[in-house]
UniProtKB/TrEMBL annotation:
One of its GO terms (biological process) is carbohydrate metabolic process. InterPro entries: Aldolase_TIM, GH, Glyco_hydro_27, Glyco_hydro_27/36_CS. PROSITE patterns: ALPHA_GALACTOSIDASE. Belongs to the glycosyl hydrolase 27 family. Keywords: Disulfide bond, Glycosidase, Hydrolase, Signal. It holds the Pfam family Melibiase_2. It catalyses: Hydrolysis of terminal, non-reducing alpha-D-galactose residues in alpha-D-galactosides, including galactose oligosaccharides, galactomannans and galactolipids. Residues 1-33 form the signal peptide. Gene3D superfamilies: Aldolase class I. This is Alpha-galactosidase. It is an enzyme of class 3 (hydrolase).
Amino acid sequence: MATSEKKGFTATLYFFLLTTMCLVGEFPLKAVAGNAAPLLQRYEDGNEHGYSRAFNAIYDTSKYGILQLQNGLARTPPMGWNSWNFFACNINETVIKETADALISTGLANLGYTYVNIDDCWSKVTRDAKAGSKIANSLLCKTKMLLQGQMVPDPKTFNSGIKALADYVHSKGLKLGIYSDAGKFTCQVRPGSIFHEKEDAMSFASWDVDYLKYDNCFNLGIEPKKRYPPMRDALNATGRSIFYSICEWGVDDPALWAGKVGNSWRTTEDINDTWVR
Ligand SMILES: *[C@@H]1O[C@H](CO)[C@@H](O)[C@H](O)[C@H]1NC(C)=O
Ligand SMILES: *[C@@H]1O[C@H](CO)[C@@H](O)[C@H](O)[C@H]1NC(C)=O
Ligand SMILES: *[C@@H]1O[C@H](CO)[C@@H](O)[C@H](O)[C@H]1NC(C)=O
């Protein structure tokens, strides 16, 4: 081929390729545009153009969460760690701190596992007697004192206090959870919060706690529907946003009544790392 012929051939080839590409490229675009415009139009105009209200409602998130407790939390499921399954009662502030560190170093925190939740056994077996010390003379009064007063962290295992632990956990960008019970005692026979909801919620809030798991032991036979709302109201009254996790083991069908009582509820007894349950 002569040079000019070569140039002509190359130009023809380019022209052919461009035309083909344009055709191939434009045909589907036109086809999509032809359908998409009325599709969008119909979506934007709602059911006037043939789509049912129910169909359009799929895209309407304005009422999301109206059946939930309105404390701004649990818009997505909470994720994190709880001390019970592995450590049971053998916990202390070191274990909690090390777990917070591990959530960071393993990368789990980055994936959303942000709650570090202390379960049963963090508190002293009796309430702080100071609140009742003025009436501390008779044996009756002494007994009463043990059942009144503030919940306090066990000085042997949480000597720095829960506030210091919350500060540590928060400094890592994580959240701290604590545990109590909608009964006279916790399952490990520490003070429970029934009839102490207000002062205990105040304690949790004053320690900057972010989450409360509220268990079901020693419940005096009072039905969950009656025992769980007072703590919801007490937490709310503190003004601090505290995730409220109802743990009545699913015994009274919480799915039927707990939506506006707690941020979450448990549906079974304890699970463990087997496939049995
Ligand atoms: C804290 O608890 C862990 C786990 O049970 C235990 O291994 C450790 O010895 C405890 N530390 C102290 C100081 O008690
Ligand atoms: C308390 O409850 C009200 C009413 O549901 C809600 O608007 C408010 O955000 C709650 N406050 C806290 C701290 O949970
Ligand atoms: C796990 O739970 C199942 C069902 O309750 C029980 O049979 C089993 O003993 C438990 N295993 C452990 C290791 O706790």
